[in-house]
Amino acid sequence: MGRSVENGGAAEPEVSVVIPCLNEAQSIESCVRSALDVLREHGISGEIIVADNDSDDGSGELAAGAGATVVRETRRGYGSAYLAGFAAARGRYIITADADQTYDFAEIPRFVAQLESGADMVIGNRMNNILPGAMPWLHRYIGNPVLSGFLNLLYRSGVHDAHCGMRALRRDKLPVLRLRSTGMEFASEMVVRAVKENLTVTEFDIDYRPREGDSKLSSFRDGWRHLKLLLVNSPTALFMVPGLAILALGLFGIALSILDVSVFGHQWQIHATIASALLTVVGAQVVALAVSARAFAVDALGERPDRLLAWGRRNLRLEHGLVAGALMLLAGLGVGAAIVAIWIDRGFGELSEERLLVLASVLVIVGVQTIFSSFFLSIIGLAKEESPSWPSGTYKGVERRRSSV
């Protein structure tokens, strides 16, 4: 559905406070009024955007009556609501907060001050000021610390509370962020995208208060969605690191077997050789997936290339991959031919070159993988296109029901 602005020619406000809302009739009016009072008290020109996520308890009407601009998003999801609210926002700065009274809107001027000081994104840190009863034990001591810690391990964001709902950003950074997530993982995506685009992210401590009404959070389902987003946005952690580890272990095992090296006084038997071969093949395939995923992220999704990928793009071509794969394939076939020659030399009798046969098989398989993976990377390169721009004018599924400043 098209988006319309009923108040028409109002000047662009300095701040847009965006509040996602799903059945928050108990608290939405007080949230809107609190935000408006803070803006007036500090002389900040602004608007309150309530992204009503298809509530059925009259939350949208209550928000409009309290003075908010209500944008209705029928597609359920925390991220869906925010995407609708961001598309409707007109302010230079966007402040986000939940509709359940867990955040103090009096913090708005502090967020604005950080943005005016040069930050691109500002995130509240709840973990040092959690009021009694505000956060379940599972979230406070396990869920949030573990997920935020894992995010920092992969992306080095330096953010201590990656899931805080009260944050701020410059509206002109939305096209750079290219946010897509529709669920609770939207909070993690904002941080991940900001880090990948080298935006300046700051944080400061805020209070976290007990919520009004029922929580919409599903601990394990939403926790998994956060974890999944962190992994799929990091091909290095998801593919490259485990792939290289598996490949190295497999090659080490094959080397011990071929060189007939004893380990702790025991010889490397054929079963261990076959297991090592399996690890080598799997590791090589996972590494190929890592390179392909990273190339797709750059060519199709518009992400910045890392140093290794940038070097590869400058110095390597399809032909290099084909030659490398062909050499491994020919080497494998050569070892296989040598085994056949040994068999013929022995008069087609008993043959005990199992380790060489395993080596030949690995070379052939990895060689074929390399050839076709090189072609696949070349196909991904054809998908280069301009980065998607932030929607303007219309936003599918969004309906503006009332507007006021």
User: The biggest beta sheet, please?
Assistant: 8 strands, mixed
N-to-C order of helices and strands: EHEHEHEHEHEHHEHHHHHHE
Relative strand content: 5-15%
Q: List how many beta strands DSSP finds.
A: 8
Counting DSSP H or I runs of 4 or more residues, the number of helices is 13
Q: Strand order within the widest sheet?
A: 7-5-6-4-1-2-3-8
Count of domains? 2
Estimate the helix proportion, in percent.
Answer: 40-55%
CATH class of the largest domain: Alpha Beta
Question: Which helices and strands appear, and what pairs or packs with what?
Answer:
Blueprint: E1 15-21, H1 28-41, E2 46-52, H2 59-66, E3 69-73, H3 78-88, E4 93-96, H4 108-116, E5 121-125, H5 137-155, E6 167-170, H6 174-177, H7 186-196, E7 201-205, H8 219-232, H9 235-258, H10 270-299, H11 307-315, H12 318-345, H13 354-381, E8 398-402
Helix pairs in contact: 1-2, 5-8, 9-10, 10-13, 12-13
